[in-house]
Design a protein that fits this description.
2 copies of one chain form a homodimer. Chain A has about 575 residues and is α+β, with helices and mostly antiparallel strands. Chain A is about 25% helix and about 30% strand. The first copy, chain A, contains 15 helices and 33 strands. In chain A, a hairpin with a 5-residue loop joins strand 20 and strand 21.
Chain lengths: ~575, ~575
């Protein structure tokens, strides 16, 4: 659809922001008539929104095809059996939408398609000659967000381009992974979207090596850490970032034995530090987690927060939650607030009974507690703490834990690899994600391929996703002004918005003819031929935000002059039909 | 994607038909590697299948846009509230797939989008100036078929193009309806698909005037009635077709009064007719239905079947089922098999109690029982029938029922409007459907639009659907031979399938260069560069069914000769690269 009139394709502009709109893209896409909420987390793409969506789909398809990815179309509703095979039927929780058919058989409204694509690969891959192969689709996905919000940024139904590659070895996976990184950069470049690619934790996907494409934004739900020196390419999701303290902890041998102090009523590290007049960074913070079969007791420096993602990854425990008070009492023999590694009444790998259930205890120490003396810690006794605690003497961090990093990094810490550069933080919205999955799914689906010698092997796998709605929304987050959206030409529904100013049908007829002329030259133009005031049309032209505006009025009738306005910088110039046709200015 | 090599885009061909495949399109699309079943009623579009799907999507989009229809994208998962508003939450039954979100709120996996689109119209339509408008989308739909089968023909998840138009008056609706009919003809013409457009009953859609686009096929699930004279354009779905008997019933006054006959043990019309030596067409067949609040007793000529769709439409009753024996006994005071209009112990519009529930009785007479004497009918008494029953004397068809037509028409009946032409029947698969919906939904959604004088009115509505998967499958049903599919160029994944016959890498390099040359000239070609025997490649070329095959071997190396084979007629000719580039032969 290159060109159309307002009388054929109606505008859906409105003066009112949706009541629940708090972010720019949600407000502008709604007011400019691109989207409309139907129910919580479910959006209609209105005619202009659909045109933007299709342009983005086409950009993605072209770039994926250019990278020899192969497009397929998988069912949205996927068989529960596939999810049982990968064990994600249980682990995906309530965010995964499920339903039963008329025979009470369970299906999943696919949030992602690793299972489905692995099933496909298991059906068709036989020989190393077919590898590497990278299947992709552009399709609808579901995620039952507790709190859908921000318009297209956090929906329950959304479109993703998701790709899944299969490889004979890691080298091949790395090549495709790098190719996809470049493909994503190309896609976002064509959308004129500034993204940061960021090291990420691969979380529930269960992978090894992954990178997120983030759009820096105050409304982002993820915290990114970047090097303060922008020439240094260090970017990490806070969930993944390594913690390197800017001021080193003091590694010294304590000259005193542990001494028990009465700290009646003081529980938090801050309270006790103030009370004892000790430095908070010399404290040991003890955090106790549990799940259905384990209790994890983590020890970190008192001045920092624990990074639960890094902790889970190290221990391999899923679904850890803060321990209940009864569990704390069972393992420390004291109420909460007084736990510590010295004289802790439980040992690593021992089983304890809490609430009639046997659980295994795991003690996990952050590396920044090693070889330190003068530490302060809870005494595992109500209203008491120890000072002068020495690692290696009063408690011992096992050799295999000597590099454990379970502290949440933050702005002000050092950039890993650069001990004179600090980290700064920013918030970000994830628009794309590339992962090395390894063999998690190819093993689950028992994918076997024959190598050159006829010996069977299990391929390794990568996955690569882009959210289309989020991409559209974040482009608007980055490109707008107080009057409305400012589309890049690559995504704009039309190149030109033609405002006609006429007083009678005779004048209108001249502009109708001009439009027909533009159409015959395949110029992408939206012609606002409504019988409305110039003010209304100018307002809608700015709000809808096509890159160029053509204003035709009495000057055009007099001498063929058309006013061209650049939406981005507001610059105006007078041109003629010939200029448009010949130069497509 | 204009061109690609087998080493980049793998073939998914196989020698085996799916176990459940009984129809040509299911077998060939599977064997040729276009589709793969994931679970019952859910199909993957493999790379070639996806290319066909996208070509069809593009054809439909172009033709819809040409008709000034406006594309949007509605959520697939729709709010149950919308379905309550139209009362289809209850009436759609088990075919409509439903689910609950994490808050136990109900959603529908949309089988169709009248509700959703009416909601959209209610939000945006304000003025007659916005009318007519025709919104469409190309999106996924769900129908929980009891027995999914025939590959893409009867799926549970499928893609439809569905359009919904809104109008100020019937004339405008008729214009768009006619435009859509033409648009559909254009679409099917571009797909080279032979369709019949057939008058249809609009069933659960609740409309007035509709037409189906059917593909004649033995595996069709609908029966079509056509005039034996193909120059006469009468085509109707059996559910809709008017019944006009080829041999008129005798309208005569009986000279005798009704006479009761003992017919012990004879129940069916056929048994009694044989026993009494009376003509079956002089019998009255009595059929008793019921639903939760009504009992409908229908009377038709003994030689015919009842058309329940026409009956429901006339009486306005939904969900009629055959009456239970207890109901029959309640209303006829006899066991089933002996009901009849003469001396029937219940009257029209009277209430009766059956199984502790009050139901209203409705008597419905087919017009072919009017003014007839010598009728034979059950006596409402076990083992007894009456002969010499006279309409107008022994039972009376009310004046308002004098044109009621509730008999199922069939081959051999007369073509309505042509009393010397008979009907013939054929089976058909529905690929498209156009409806005049009227105000059913615009009323339910309280859509109000202001007319020229500022007075508000409710627009009238039309809806127009095409099934994409069915269209693809029926094209294959019509276009194949024993070797495989024969695609029309408009839908084929590629125009050319290039078979290369080489003995060493040096020869292969020549063909690789030829392919690069074709690519540089934007020729749509799939290059089978596999290291397989010529036989394997020829078989796959025929099976996958692109319209033209290019065979390159030693002749090409010797003098640049390429063998061109037309897949449809098998004709071969020798051409050169220049011929392809210049004439795109």
């Amino acid at each position: 659809m290159l060109n159309v009139k307002a009388s054929q394709l109606p505008l859906f502009t409105t003066n009112e922001n949706p009541k629940d709109a708090v972010v720019t893209s949600h407000k502008l896409l709604s007011r400019a008539g691109y989207i409309k909420k139907q129910s919580s987390g479910f959006y209609v793409y209105l005619p202009f929104g659909n045109l933007v969506y299709q342009k983005l789909e086409q950009i993605i398809r072209e770039e994926m095809n250019r990278s020899y990815a192969v497009e397929v179309k998988l069912p949205i509703l996927t068989d529960s059996e596939l999810w049982m095979k990968s064990a994600r039927w249980d682990s995906m929780g309530k965010e995964m939408m499920r339903m039963k058919d008329r025979h009470d058989y369970q299906y999943v409204l696919g949030p992602t398609h690793e299972e489905s694509m692995s099933w496909l690969a298991a059906n068709f891959l036989q020989s190393y000659k077919q590898l590497p192969v990278n299947f992709y689709q552009i399709g609808t996905k579901y995620r039952d967000e507790i709190r859908p919000r921000y318009g297209l940024i956090r929906c329950r139904e959304f479109v993703m381009k998701d790709a899944y590659s299969f490889h004979a070895d890691d080298q091949s996976l790395n090549e495709t992974y790098d190719l996809m990184r470049q493909t994503y950069k190309n896609i976002f470049l064509r959308c004129e979207l500034d993204t940061l690619s960021v090291e990420a934790d691969s979380g529930a996907m269960g992978g090894s090596g992954s990178e997120e494409f983030m759009v820096a934004s105050e409304i982002g739900e993820e915290t990114l850490l970047l090097c303060e020196d922008s020439t240094i390419h260090y970017r990490a999701n806070q969930e993944k970032a390594e913690y390197i303290p800017a001021v080193p902890y003091t590694f010294e041998v304590s000259s005193h034995l542990p001494e028990k102090k009465l700290t009646t009523g003081k529980k938090s590290v801050e309270e006790v530090a103030t009370f004892l007049e000790m430095e908070i960074r010399n404290f040991i913070k003890t955090v106790i987690f549990e799940n259905s079969d384990s209790i994890v007791i983590a020890f970190i420096p008192g001045d920092r927060e624990i990074n639960e993602v890094k902790l889970s990854k190290i221990t391999g425990h899923r679904e850890l939650e803060m321990a209940e008070e009864s569990t704390v009492v069972s393992v420390t023999k004291s109420e909460s607030g007084y736990a510590g590694p010295y004289l802790l009444p439980v040992e690593n790998n021992k089983k304890v009974i809490v609430q009639n259930k046997e659980k295994t205890v795991h003690l996990v120490y952050d590396r920044n507690l090693r070889k330190r003396g003068n530490l302060v810690t809870g005494a595992n006794e109500k209203n008491h703490h120890f000072i002068n605690v020495q690692e290696g003497r009063d408690f011992i961090i096992p050799e295999e834990q000597k590099n454990y990093d379970i502290v949440k990094a933050q702005a002000g810490d050092l950039t890993p690899g650069y001990n004179d550069k600090k980290l700064v933080s920013t918030k970000g919205i994830e628009v794309g994600h590339i992962f090395k999955l390894g063999k998690k799914y190819t093993d689950s689906f028992n994918i076997k391929v024959l190598d050159k010698n006829g010996k069977s092997f299990t391929p390794t796998m990568g996955t690569y996703g882009i959210g289309l709605g989020r991409t559209i929304a974040t482009v608007v987050e980055q490109k707008s002004d107080e009057k409305g959206i400012i589309w890049p030409e690559s995504l704009s529904p039309f190149k030109y918005y033609m405002v006609s100013i006429y007083k009678n049908d005779e004048q209108k007829k001249v502009f109708d003819q001009l439009f027909d002329e533009l159409v015959s030259h395949k110029i992408s133009v939206y012609y606002d031929d409504r019988n409305e005031s110039p003010g209304v049309k100018f307002t809608d032209a700015d709000l809808t935000g096509f890159p160029y505006q053509l204003v035709v009025g009495k000057n055009f009738i007099a001498d063929g002059t058309i006013e061209l306005k650049n939406r981005k910088n507001g610059q105006k110039s007078n041109i003629t039909l010939k200029d448009i046709i010949e130069n497509n200015v």
